[in-house]
Amino acid sequence: MVNIEKTKFEGIYFYWKDKKKILLTKNLTPSKKYFNEDLISENNIEYREFDVRRSKLASAVLKGINFLPFKQDSIVLYLGASYGYTSSYVSDICNNGFIFALDFAPRVLMDLYFLCKERENMTCLLYDANQPELYKDKIIEVDIIYQDIAQKNQVEIFLKNIARFLKKKGYCIIAIKARSIDTLKKPDNIYKEVEKELEKNLRIIDKIKLDPFQKDHCFFVCQKK
Amino acid sequence: MNLKELRKINLDETSKKIKESFSKDLLIIRAIHNLDELIKVINKLMGSLREWYSYYYPELIRNIQTNEEILDLILSNKKRNDSIGYDFNNEDLDLINNFAKSIKNLYSIKQEQENYIDRIIKEICPKLSKITETLVIARLIEKAGSLKNLAQLPSSTIQVLGAETSFFKGLKTKKSPKFGVVFSSSLVVNARKEDKSKIARKLSNKIALAARQDYYGKH
């Protein structure tokens, strides 16, 4: 019998396994799993294990970020959903909300498509996040924007999407991959530049480096002014 | 519009787009991957087979180099006379024979993949296949992602496609590579050493031109 405890964030739980902290979310689609993760049940509630090595959101939680905006009824725009690992957990957390998962590579969209068919509160879009005007009719105003795109102009993409889709005082999260902005500069310098850029338009609530779970990544949680 | 409707619209649209995204390029990339894997697997298995058979009849395969010859010798079931090798019983010999047969079969699958690549490349890029070998073209398409991407690349990038590791290393050491995949083209292989980089440059130049004609010419 495992002892499942709450973290300070809504919808995210954890338990201890061999002195390691393992994060969990309540499974929205009981008995179904998509990424070979372990399922754990307690008191007839099923939980899915959330692997830190595969998700930047999980590693941010484990590294001790102070604030995450996800609520049960949040409407989220997820940019760079890839094959849907993190976004499936976001859909677990926001079980009464809705997730728009966007990516532009057809191959990963194939996996994402089948995931979205199973989950009632998710949908997928095959668009380039660089051109928000193309998918403006396909989504509505959202409470949270989460971005995990390994592109050189990731900050620019982020700000573009915030200006168009995020409601006032809404929250936005970005995972910066320093290596895709510049391979030669020191990651810390890049984070500083990014922070300056973000501060022009947003209020930065918290930031945290994701080493050693994700190498050369930094995680920013911001709020729209 | 409510979320349920939006969900349905988006799912329908995505399924349509995914269907449209498939093309012959993907099959070429798959075939090249298959080919590479087959080459690796065959080499490993052959090393194992060679060692195994040499327990039985070391004199026969001592001086033979190529894998195909070894296979043919083993499968021809030569009568062994006076050897220092271990005396295999019938069961051992059957086992080794079946193993060799399976590898032989892998060779024919490999040939099949090569023929397929050859045929498809000649079909979808007639101009490119006049310039260089179809296998080189297929590898370029694989590295670029698709024929469309290849057609949009500048020739200097085409020249170093497939040499990404040393290219990024070169950013630090200021020594950039001269060739990637194009190096395996017969034009470059057969050139004198001092001409190799020049020929690689000219070749990738022409590849860029031909790729554009092949892709945009018919669309």
Please give a structural write-up.
The complex is a heterodimer of chains A (225) and B (219). Chain A is globular and about 50 Å long. Chain A is 27% helix and 33% strand. Chain A has 225 residues and is α/β, with parallel strands linked by helices. In chain A, strands 8-7-6-9-10-12-11 form a 7-stranded mixed β-sheet, sandwiched between helices. Chain A has a 5-stranded antiparallel β-sheet with strand order 1-2-3-5-4. In chain A, strand 4 and strand 5 form a beta hairpin. By secondary structure, chain B is mostly helical. Chain B has helices at residues 3-21, 24-56, 58-61, 67-75, 90-124, 126-131, 134-144, 147-152, 155-160, 164-173, 186-189, 196-218. Chain B is extended. The mean pLDDT of chain B is 89.
Task: Give me some keywords for this one.
heterodimer, A: 225 residues, alpha/beta, Phosphorylase Kinase, domain 1, Rossmann fold, 7-stranded mixed β-sheet, 5-stranded antiparallel β-sheet, 6 helices, 12 strands, B: 219 residues, mainly alpha, 12 helices, 76% helix, 0% strand, extended
Short structural description:
The complex is a heterodimer of chains A (225) and B (219). Chain A is of the alpha/beta class and 225 residues long.
Question: Strands across the major sheet of chain A, in which order?
Answer: 8-7-6-9-10-12-11
Number of helical elements of chain A: 6
Low-pLDDT windows of residues of chain A: none
Main sheet record of chain A? 7 strands, mixed
pLDDT averaged residue by residue of chain A:
91
**CATH architecture assignment name of the largest domain in chain A:** 3-Layer(aba) Sandwich
What fraction strand of chain A? 25-35%
As a percent range, the share of helical residues of chain A equals 25-40%
In helices, the fraction of residues of chain B equals over 70%
Number of strands of chain B: 0
Sequence of secondary-structure elements of chain A: EEEEEHEHEHEEHEHHEE
Overall pLDDT metric of chain B: 89
Biggest sheet character of chain B: none
CATH class membership of the largest domain in chain A = Alpha Beta
**CATH fold-level topology of the largest domain in chain A:** Rossmann fold
The counted number of beta strands of chain A is 12
